[in-house]
């Protein structure tokens, strides 16, 4: 989403809370929305964290639910292979025993969550998006930051004792859906909305396509980042400059 950071205009020297952000119309990239400041050189105003090695969860905001109540805030994860498989196989949570599952922050995950098209062209695997989170305007994205990488273990689903894995299990494994086990700190959390993340990803995709057709490098400085709110209410930048797998590769002859 395109942002205008009011506090930056006044030269704030401390961390900046997200409630001081407001949307603005920025025609030539999003960097101007930070009052002309470099999103990757915050000078103590906000943290910058690379997108790689993060985990994400898309959570629909239920009717009459506040958006913040859809955030995941727990710090202890205790998934078992059986629980992961049971949750994948029990889409509707009929017995009420499903656990929270997670996705690595990769292109497939963004496609699965409706943040990018399911079909990105011949250079990317076609991914079927999850229908329950199709209304991206009513989705909260909980992000486990890379600072938690050494604190958590991925827990893969238990495989069936006999026979082939079900369609649900195959689909989940193809996307990278996993359980987690371990303990993190509240500072390892950040949050954004489905709308903001989708707009940022589509802006990156559109910029890459324009750059390819023009025969120039794409403008990472203006587009390769999103803002997220930390658990303490302060904003941070999530840096997509080194998110190498998400680079649009267009077919021969497309540059025109």
Summarize the structure.
The chain has six helices and twelve strands. The chain is an alpha+beta fold and 256 residues long. It starts with a strand and ends in a 17-residue tail after the last strand.
Describe this structure in words.
- Keywords: Signal.
- It comes from Fusarium irregulare.
- It is a single chain.
- The protein is α+β, with helices and mostly antiparallel strands and 256 residues long.
- 21% of the residues lie in helices and 20% in strands.
- It is built from six helices and twelve strands.
- The protein has helices at 6-9, 81-89, 107-112, 167-175, 194-214, 220-223, and strands at residues 3-5, 21-23, 47-50, 55-60, 76-78, 103-104, 139-144, 152-155, 179-183, 189-193, 225-230, 235-239.
- Strands 3-12-11-10-7-4-6 form a seven-stranded mixed beta sheet. It has a three-stranded antiparallel beta sheet with strand order 5-9-8, with helices on one face. Strands 1-2 form a two-stranded antiparallel ribbon.
- It is globular and about 55 Å long.
- Residues 1-13, 21-28 and 252-256 have low confidence and may be disordered.
**How many helices?**
6
Gross geometry: globular
Identify the strand order in the major beta sheet: 3-12-11-10-7-4-6
Percent of residues in helices: 10-25%
Structural class: alpha+beta
**DSSP strand (E) fraction?**
15-25%
Number of strands: 12
Cα-atom Rg, whole angstroms?
Answer: 19 Å
Report the biggest beta sheet as strand number plus sense, adding barrel if it closes.
7 strands, mixed
Oligomer: single chain
Low-confidence stretches: 1-13, 21-28, 252-256
Through-space gap between termini: 28 Å
Mean pLDDT: 84
Helix-strand pattern: EHEEEEHEHEEHEEHHEE
């Amino acid at each position: 989403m395109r942002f205008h950071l009011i506090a930056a205009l006044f030269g704030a020297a401390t961390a900046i809370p997200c409630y001081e952000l407001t949307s603005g119309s920025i025609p030539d990239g999003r960097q101007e929305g930070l009052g002309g400041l470099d999103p990757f050189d915050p000078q103590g105003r906000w943290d910058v964290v690379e997108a790689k090695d993060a985990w994400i969860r898309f959570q629909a905001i239920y009717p009459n639910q506040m958006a913040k109540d859809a955030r995941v805030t727990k710090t202890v994860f205790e998934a078992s292979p059986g629980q992961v498989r049971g949750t994948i196989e029990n889409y509707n949570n009929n017995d009420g025993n499903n656990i929270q599952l997670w996705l690595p922050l990769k292109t497939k995950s963004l496609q699965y969550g409706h943040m990018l098209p399911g079909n990105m062209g011949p250079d990317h695997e076609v991914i079927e998006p999850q229908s329950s989170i199709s209304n991206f305007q009513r989705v909260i994205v909980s992000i486990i930051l890379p600072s938690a990488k050494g604190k958590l273990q991925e827990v893969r689903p238990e495989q069936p004792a006999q026979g082939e894995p079900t369609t649900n299990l195959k689909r989940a494994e193809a996307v990278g859906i996993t359980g987690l086990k371990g303990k993190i700190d509240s500072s390892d959390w950040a949050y954004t909305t489905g709308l903001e993340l989708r707009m940022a990803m589509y802006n990156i995709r559109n910029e890459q396509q324009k750059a390819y057709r023009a025969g120039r490098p794409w403008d990472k400085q203006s587009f390769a980042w999103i803002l997220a709110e930390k658990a303490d209410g302060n904003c941070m930048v999530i840096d997509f400059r080194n998110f190498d797998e998400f680079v649009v590769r267009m077919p021969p002859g497309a540059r025109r």
